[in-house]
Write a structure and sequence with these properties.
The complex is a heterotrimer of chains A (about 240), B (about 300) and C (about 260). Chain A has about 240 residues and is α/β, with parallel strands linked by helices. Chain A has two domains: about 1-70 and about 145-240, 3-Layer(aba) Sandwich (Rossmann fold); about 80-145, no CATH class. Chain A has eight helices and ten strands. Chain A has a six-stranded mixed β-sheet, with helices on both faces. A four-stranded antiparallel β-sheet of chain A has the order 2-1-4-5, covered by helices on one side. Helices cover about 75% and strands about 0% of the residues of chain B. Chain B has helices at about 1-30, 35-40, 50-60, 65-75, 90-125, 130-145, 150-160, 175-205, 210-215, 220-255, 260-270, 275-305. Chain B is mainly alpha-helical and about 300 residues long. Chain B has twelve helices and no strands. Chain C is mainly α. Classes of the chains: A alpha/beta (about 240), B mainly alpha (about 300), C mainly alpha (about 260). Chains in contact: A-C, B-C. At the B-C interface, helix 1, helix 6, helix 7, helix 10 and helix 11 of B face helix 3, helix 4, helix 8, helix 9 and helix 10 of C.
Chain lengths: ~240, ~300, ~260
Amino acid sequence: MLNVGNITVKRAKSVALNDVSFSIQAGKTLAVVGESGAGKSTLIASILGLLTPSQGAITWSGAPVRACRPALVMQEPRAAFNPVHSLRRSVQEPLRARKTNILTERLKRLCDGLELAPELLNRKPAEVSIGQAQRVGILRALVAAPPLILFDEPLSALDAITQKHTAKLIADLQAEEGFTALIVTHDLGYACAFSDEIAVLRAGSIEEVGTPDAFVSNPKTNYGRKLRDAAFSLGALERRR
Amino acid sequence: MTFAILGLVLRAAVVVTGAALLTFVLLWNAPGDPAMAIAQARYNFVVPTEVLEQVRAESGLDAGFWAAFKDWIGPLLVGDFGRSSVTGREVWPDLVTAIGYTVPLALMGLAIGLAIALPLAALAARNPGSVLDRVCVALASVGVAIPQYWLGLLLILLFAVHLGWLPAMGARSTANLVLPALTLGLGVAASLTRIIRSGILEARNQSFLPAIRRRGVSPSSIERDHVAPHAAIPVVTVLGLELAFLLEGVVVVEVIFGRPGLGGFLVTAIGARDFPKVQAVVLLTALLFVIINLLIDIFYQVLDPRIGEHDA
Amino acid sequence: MRSVFALSLVLVALAVFGPMLAPHDPTAINIPNRLSSPSEQWPLGTDALGRDILSRLLYGARWSLGLAFLISVIGLSIGTLVGLAAAQGGKLADWALMRTTDTFLAFPELVAAVVIAGLLGAGTGSLIFALGITSWMRYARVARGVGLSLKNRGFVIQAKLAGLSPLAIARSHYVPALVPSLIVVWTGMFARAILGISALGFLGFGVQPPMPEWGTMLLDARIHMRSTPLQMIWPGLSVAACVLAINLCGDALRDSLVDRQS
C-alpha cells in the first residue's frame, strides 16, 4: 500500500504541495487530475524520492518508497530513452541494476502483451513511432516487476486512437501483473474510465478524493464541478444518466 | 535589470579578488624567499638581514599565508605597486611608460585586424560556398595556424632585411610601429574573419527577413538595419577573446621587435625575478580583462535580458 | 572524416617515427661545419653549432606533439572533473567552481603560462605545469553545460530510478554525451598547446637546449637571420603545418559530431 502522509514541498517563493495526503491499496489505481502547475510533477518526484518534501512522509508498506524500486512511465516517450542506445539496452537497464539475469521468457511475454515485435528493441528511439516508444517505455517499467508504477501523463503525447489502445493495454497488464498504479493526467475521461479512485489536485492541495462514479455524478467541490462540466462539454467525458 | 547588472559587478569583484589571491599563491610558491621579495618590493635593492627579519615578523610570514596575503594586498588596494627589486625604482612610473608603448601598438593591431577582416568576411559571405568564399576561409585558417613570433620574424626578414623599407627594432619613430602592428593585425584578422563571416550568414538567416522582404523593403536597407546589427553581436562576444589574443600577441611581438612595452617589461622582469614588476603586470592584465568582460556582459544584459551570461 | 583520419595518422606517425628517420644525431655539435647550406649530407643545412637541422626538426616533432598531447590531456582531465562536479554538486559547489574557473580565465592563457613557467624556473616540468594549469577552463565550461542539460533528461532519471550506481550512469549516459563536445574543444586546445610550447621556447622559458624544440630552434636561428634566413623558415613552418592540420581535423570533427547531434 502506498501511503502519502501530509507532505508539503516548499519552493523559493511558493508552496508546490501543501499538506497532501492519500493512499492507494495494493493492486489498485489512483488517478490524480489537475491542470498544469497544480503540482503533479512535484508529487511524482516526491513519491519517487527524487526530491525530499519539507514535511511529511511517503511510504510503501511502511518502508521508504525507494526500497521497492518504483518505475515511472514518462510523458515524452522518446526523451525517456538515451538516443544513442538501442531500446533493448534501455529496457534491460533495470535488470542490470538489480544484477538479475535477462528474463527472456518474461520479456517475450510482455512484448506480446504490449503488441511489440521483439526485433523492434534492436532499434534506436528515433527509429520507432511515438506510440511504439511509449509501449517500450511501459515495457521498461514492467520488466523488473516493480510493485508500484507511476504514469506521468502517459497518453498525452499520443494520437487519439493510440491513446485508447495504450490505455487498454495498461489496464490489461495491470490485471495480469497486479501492480499498483498512480496515474497523473489532465484527461478526466481517461481518469474516470481506468481508475479505482480520483484525486483532484489544485494549486498544491488535494480538493477531493472519490470513486469515478461519485465524482461524475456529484463532485464535492466547485472546482471539481467545473472540471467535470468542462470535460462534458469537450466530449472527453460521457454524461451518465 | 539593475539587479542583474549588480550581480555581474559582484561576480567580477569576486573574480578580481580570486585573481589577486592566485597571483599571491604563485608568488608564495615561486622558488626564492617571499620575505625577500616583499622587502625588496617595499624598500630597496639591498636588504640588510635585520630588515628582512623585521619584514618576516611584521608581514607575518612566519604567521602564515593569510597574514602575509593581507599585508601584501594592503598597499596594492591604494595603488601602490612598490619598488622594483632590481633597480629600486618605483614600479608604477615605469609601468606607465611601458603601457604608453603598448596601447598604440594594440590599438593599431586591432584596427589593422578589423580593416582586413571586415571586408574579407563580407566578401566571403556574399556568396557562401563559392571559390572566393573558400579562398577567404582558407586564408583565415592558415593565418590562425601561423605563430605570431614567426610571422613577425618573416616580416622583419622581408621588409627590414631584404627590402630595407622599414626599421625592425626599437621604438624611436612611428615607422617602428608598422611591422609590429602589422604582425598583430594579421593575427587578429585571421581569427576574426571566420567569426564575422558566420555572424553575417546567421544574420541573413533570421526568420523574419523573408516577411520584411515581401513588404518591399529594399535589400540594402535590410542589410543595414537588420543584418549588420545582428552580425555585430558575435564580434562583441569575441572582443574579450581578441583582447586576450592581443595581450598574448603583445608579449611576443614586443620581444621580437625590441619594443620597451608591457610585454618586454614582463619578460625582462621575469628573467630578472623582479617580483613586484611581475605582479603589477599580471594584476593589471587580469583587472583589464575582467573589466572588459564585465562591460561585454552588461552590454548583453542591456541588449537582450534573456542572455544571462556569454561564453567567452 | 577520412581526411581527418589521414591527417591525424600523419601527425602521430611524425611524432612516433619521425626521430627514426633523422639522418643525424640532433644534438651532435660540429663547429667546423656551422651554418652550412643545404647539401646532400645536410638536407636542410646546419645551425650555429653545426647540428643537422632536418634531424632537429624531426626530433622536435616528438617534443611539440608529445608535450602538447600531454598538456591537452591534463587540461581535459582537470576541466571535465571540475565541470561535472559543478553540474552535479549543487548550487554552492557550482558557484564556487565556476567563479574559480572565471578567475583562471581572468589571465590571458599565454601571459599566465609565461609568468608561471618563468617564475618556476625554465624547464620541461614547469612548461607542462604552466600550460596545463592554464588550459582546463574551456573544458570545464563545456562539461558543466553538458552535465547540467543531462541531469534532468528523461533517460538519466530513468537510470537513477532503475537503481544504477552513479558510476554506471556516468559510463553509459554521460560519457557518450560528453565525448563529441569535449573532443572538439580538445583539438582546439591541442593546437593551442603546440603554439604555447613553441612560444615559451622562443621566449626562452620552455624546453631547454640542447633539446631540439621548434620554438627554441627559432630563437637560435633568429640571430643568424641575415646569413642563413632559411634556417628560420623551417621550425615556424613545422609549427604552422601541425596547427593547421589539427585545426582542420577539429573543423571536420565539429561538422560531423556536433552538428549531427543537434
